[in-house]
Amino acid sequence: MAERMLKFVTLGRAMPEKREAEERRHDFREIYADFARAKAAEQASRCSQCGVPYCQTHCPLHNNIPDWLRMTAEGRLEEAYEIAQSTNSFPEICGRICPQDRLCEGHCVIEQAGHGTVTIGAIERFITDTAWEEGWVRPPRPLRERSESVGIIGSGPAGLACADMLRRAGVQVTVYDRADRAGGLLTYGIPGFKLEKDVVMRRIAQLQEGGVEFVLGCEVGRDLSFDAIRGRHDAVLIATGVYRAREIEGANAPGILPALDYLTASNRKGFGDEVPAFDDGHLNARGKRVIVIGGGDTAMDCVRTAIRQGAASVRCLYRRDRANMPGSQREVANAEEEGVEFVWLAAPAGFLTDPATGAVRAVRVERMRLGAPDASGRRMPEPSGEISEEPADLVIKALGFEPEDLPRLWGVPGLEVTRWGTVRAEFGTGRTNIEGVFAAGDIVRGASLVVWAIRDGREAAAAILRYLAQSETAPRIAAE
C-alpha cells in the first residue's frame, strides 16, 4: 500500500478538465469532465493516509474518505464504491454539489502542509459514476419485508435519504410531495450546470424500483390532512425543507423576484415544461441588466443562471467582503470566469421604479464597512452612508430561506416549533413532541447544505427503526 499512496510530494494536485467559460456560459451542462481512470487513481494516491483524517471528521456524514481513496489508487473501484455508499445515500450527488473547499478538502492535512489538497469531490464523483455505469448501484432489496409503514412529507435529500434507509430495512415507505417531480431543491433549486437532472431522476427511479411509493402533487393541509397521513402510517417524518424567501423592505415592484421562483422556472424549462412566466420574460434574464442580492450558494446559482440565459450584464451585491461570504469560493471563481461582476461591501438601500410601468429600474446601493465580529466570528457589516445607484431590469433576492408556518398550514397547533419557526426536534433522532412524528433536514436546522440534510435523514431513519422496534407490531397511531 505504501508504494501506491503518499505521493503528494511528487504529484501535484489536479482537477478534472473544466470546459472553457465561453463555451459553458451558453448551456446548462455540468462544467467539469470526469476523471479518466488512471488520473483518478493517480490523484487518489496523493492521500497521506494520516492517522487522524480531518477530511473524514469535517464531513457531515463522516465518510471513510481515506479508505475509498486507497481503494481507488489500487484500482479496486467496486470496493471503493461500497465504502462510499455505506455512509452516504447519494454519493454521486455530494461529489457534485458539496462545497468540498469548506468541508473535506478544506481540512486536508497535506493542504495544510502546502502540497495542495486531494481532489476528494472529483474522485467521489468518478467512483460513483463508474458504479452506475458498471451496474454496482442497486435498488433497495431488503432481506425481508416488514408490515410497518412510514409516511415521509417532502422528497428532498433528507426525505429521500430516510426513505432509502427505511426500505433497505424492509419498511413500507410512502413519500408525499406537493411538487410534480420528486427531489425537492435537487430537482428544482439547483441548476443543471452543477447537478444535471438525469443524475437526480435515476436515483428517484431506483428508489421507486426498490419499493418506495411517491405521491406527488399532494399538498399537506390542502389535498390531504396531516392527521390523515398519521392515520395511514406507523410513523411520520417531516422533511419539507424551507422555501419561504427572506424579504427586503420595499422589494415588491415588478422585476424583483425571489431566487427560488427564478431558479425553478429555469429548471422547469430544462425539463421541457410549459412555463408561461418564463416565456413572457417575467422569469427570464435574457437581454436584461441583472442584479442578484446575496452571497450564498443560491446567489451563485442565480448569477450563473442569468449568464446562461443571455443577460446583458450580471452583478452580485454582497454586504461583506469576499473572505467573509458564505458561498463556495470555487463557485465564485467559476462565476467570475463566466462574466459575473461582484460588488463587495454593498447592500440594497432601496429600489427605484419606472414611473410609467412601476417596474424596477435601479437599486440604491449603500457601501458597507466591516465592524466587530458577530457570534459566528464573521465581522459585521456596518453602513457607511455612501449611496449610489445601480441600473437594473431584473433584481433577484437570494437572501436565504425561512420555514413556512407548518402548525397553521397543516392545522396542527400542537406541533412545537422554535422561535425561528423551524420544527423543534430532538438532536440526533429528529423526534418531535408528537408521538411517532419525526423531523429532519432544513425544516429542523434551517437552510443548510444537502450533505447535512442527508445525514439528518439517515439519523431519523435509524431513530424511526428503533421506534418501530418498541413492539413486535407497532400500533397504528390514532390521529389526534
From TrEMBL:
Pfam families: Fer4_20 (PF14691), Pyr_redox_2 (PF07992). The keyword Iron applies. The lineage of its organism: Bacteria, Pseudomonadati, Pseudomonadota, Alphaproteobacteria, Rhodobacterales. GO terms for molecular function: 4 iron, 4 sulfur cluster binding; glutamate synthase (NADH) activity; glutamate synthase (NADPH) activity; metal ion binding. Keywords: 4Fe-4S, Iron, Iron-sulfur, Metal-binding, Oxidoreductase. This is Glutamate synthase (NADPH) small subunit. Its EC number is 1.4.1.13, 1.4.1.14. Residues 24-135 form the Dihydroprymidine dehydrogenase domain. Residues 150-457 form the FAD/NAD(P)-binding domain.
